[in-house]
Amino acid sequence: MSVRPSDARRGTSPWVPLLVVVAIGCAIMAPLNRQFLTASNGYVILASAGLLCVIGLAQVVVLSVGEFSLAIGGIGALSGVAMGYLLVERGAPLAVAVVVALAVGLAAGLVNGLLVAYSGVHGFVITLASGGAFTGLALGITETQPYNGLPEALTVFGTGRAGFVPYLAFATVALSLAAAAFFRWHRLGRLLLTVGGNREAAALSGLSPVRAVVAAHALSGLLAGAAGVMAAAQLHEANASVGAEWVITSFTVAIIGGTSLAGGVVSIGGLLFAGVILALIKDALVMLDVNPLWVTLTQGVLILAAVFLGRSSGWRAVRRPAAPRAVSLEGAAS
Amino acid sequence: MNAVEARRIWKTFDGNTALRDAHLAIEPGSIHALVGENGAGKSTLIKALTGVHRPDRGDILVGGVPVTLAGVHDAMRFGVSAVHQERNLVPELSVAENLLLHQPPRRGGLLDYQRMYREAEPWLARVGLDVDPRARAKTLSVAQGQLLEIARALSVRASVLLLDEPTASITEREAAVLFGILRELRDAGTAVLFVSHKLEEVLGLCDRITVLRDGQTVLDGVQAQGLRRADLITAMVGRSVAFAERREPCARPEAVPMLELRDVATELGHDAVNLSVAPGGVVALYGLVGAGRTELARCLLGLGRLTGGEVLLRGAPVRIADPHDALHRHRIGYVSEDRKGEGLILSHSVAHNIGITVWDRLRRALGFITPRREADAVGPVAARMGVRMSGLDQEVGQLSGGNQQKVCVARWLAGDVDLLVVDEPTIGVDVRTKEEMYVLLDELARAGKAILLISSDLSEVVRLADRILVMADRRIIAEHVNTGDYAQLSARIMDEIVEAQALVVPERATA
Hints:
The structure holds two protein chains of two kinds.
Chain A: H1 7-10, H2 15-32, H3 39-64, H4 72-89, H5 94-119, H6 123-142, H7 152-159, E1 161-162, E2 165-166, H8 167-185, H9 187-197, H10 199-204, H11 209-235, H12 246-256, E3 266-267, H13 268-287, H14 294-319, E4 327-328, H15 330-333
Parallel strand pairs in A: 3-4
Antiparallel strand pairs in A: 1-2
Helix pairs in contact in A: 2-13, 3-8, 3-11, 3-12, 3-13, 4-5, 4-6, 4-11, 5-6, 5-11, 7-11, 8-9, 9-11, 12-13, 12-14, 13-14
Chain B: E1 4-13, E2 16-26, E3 31-35, H1 42-49, E4 57-62, E5 65-67, H2 72-77, E6 80-83, H3 95-99, E7 106-107, E8 110-111, H4 113-126, H5 142-155, E9 160-164, H6 172-187, E10 191-195, H7 199-205, E11 208-213, E12 216-223, H8 229-237, E13 259-266, E14 273-277, E15 282-286, H9 293-300, E16 306-313, E17 316-317, H10 323-328, E18 332-335, H11 339-343, H12 350-355, H13 359-362, H14 371-385, H15 401-414, E19 419-423, H16 431-446, E20 450-455, H17 458-464, E21 467-472, E22 475-481, H18 486-504
Parallel strand pairs in B: 3-10, 3-11, 6-9, 9-10, 15-20, 15-21, 18-19, 19-20
Antiparallel strand pairs in B: 1-2, 1-4, 4-5, 7-8, 11-12, 13-14, 13-16, 16-17, 21-22
Helix pairs in contact in B: 14-15
């Protein structure tokens, strides 16, 4: 009996169709609204996409190993609040506050990873609970009042721009390149993908699935922490409720980007385009005076569309001799 | 007229032919056995009969009429129902709900529970299952669950009942009850197909027997009466296979054995296992499915606990903690019999699949692995194994079964192991790759590796091994020096296995 690799575990090599989607979207929008093709609107889209991508990246890292995290928003909020607390309440230097925020994210992720790997309780339950706990902790620290008056260096990073490119986007690109290199060339990245691709085979080949799961959650926490810092910089405040919608966002960006839900296949290039598409849609709906409430509906429709798109390209890949790679870098490099 | 017939069935998966011109015909009012080694095509044939797989060629006839089965429901409509090896019950639902799952009685759009419990009774009685229809399915024993599934299969007015290894996980007493019920069903006119590895049962229970080997029907519905176990085993394993020269032995018996097991017992039930493999030697562990060979290999990798005896590597006693330890400290590799489930990462490239074992060696500063270094390490191994691919970055899932198998072996070659345990290395690969695999294993032995070959293919064993250990029921029951005389060896080994099986499974043919 043979089993054809199912569509779900195959993931897709989606960045080309996504590029087409972006181009078509822009072509439709440009004549509809003269404001659309302006530098300031480009900035709005990229600034929004920059944060979305890092949130998605935090999910991609856990998906790669065949797990997922519902705690990304909680970790992001906690990290941002930790930074805000140090800056505003303690007057700590910015660098120290940022490093601590990232460390908080890493530690929170590590806790998740250890619990998932060693407790035997499903990751859904662990991260659902811990995500709530982290958010609660952030709320407790802030007493629901956001920290305002963040240092200028941070807010300039959050909302400044070079031409139409937000400074924030440089951080996103740097993180994405690092993630792509990590998955393609790093020993640990290979470990995550291999365990995600076939846990049993990885174990029999002397790799440690437990280590992979712990590492994936820890790195995801680190990235969620980075997203928390970026969000605070962008909003000019550290807010405990910032991560409320991050979980669905993170899945949306990852899945549209072509990362496999079953593990073993990630696409960083696809992720970047997915982030841009999502930001583009939000922006277009605003420009067209559509009620922003519809954005959520659009997100849902997009996930479905991406799944069906992925399935058809999965079929193509079965027939086509040239293989999509496990990690596609092209998008990130362009 | 036959109740159901599969005629000249061909089925290919990813370039591997699972069924080639297979034939099976079951008469109404008979119990028909389908036997064959693992990979012979039994499951594929059953799935063709139940509409799970569409045959590439050939016809399915129900009651003499050709039918097209688009799915399990179609097959049920034609009265063909299967009970699979794994239980398919909804544990939290009641016995009656499980029983009438496909056609629950309704009243006004809602389930009519009173009627459901009432209707369940006769079906339960029919299979002799004395349980409360209101009880949850999870409270049933394995054997009771199986009877419940049989009742469910019958409740769709099945005239053909297919049972895939129904006795694999129940006790003998329970099996005896099951056989009684199957006989009653037969006498009531049902056509029963019985798949089993236990030949005693097959001979005691069934009226006719079909044997599959390599996807082909080798015994087609012969009378069970008068047939002996040895006849069946011979048919299953095949004697007429043309095989080339036995490899020239190159073991160095004077050298310290690479691997030695002394009176090893394991938590999986192995007892008093003794074996030794010299560098350059190929030792075969031969046995039928279920003899415990794979389990022994897994214990060698640290995946099962030893409860007694000693494992010596290169003359020194060792404790192997886990597969990582086995590979990196002791240089042991294991090629699984389950290529797709335990061997390969199908969505990854050839380079990635082979390179797993060498990443630690390849990594540079900060843990990065440069693609050049990886290609340098992996490329020659892939070339030596003769993997046919478009390039090292081709996805392994796109390769044929034979080439996938080569990738599995190549992984350990790259990892530079000294002892290679290969479990059914030619299962599901084409003839050409089989030959290539034999040549490769011979070359590896010549290069000084020790090879422990697990195989159910006796011609393969005679072709490759220096010595042949025969395993049955988790014990080594005999050891032979490979004389290369296939006929003589196979006759002796078959006798030994038959004898051992007779000891394990007491006669219950008349139970």
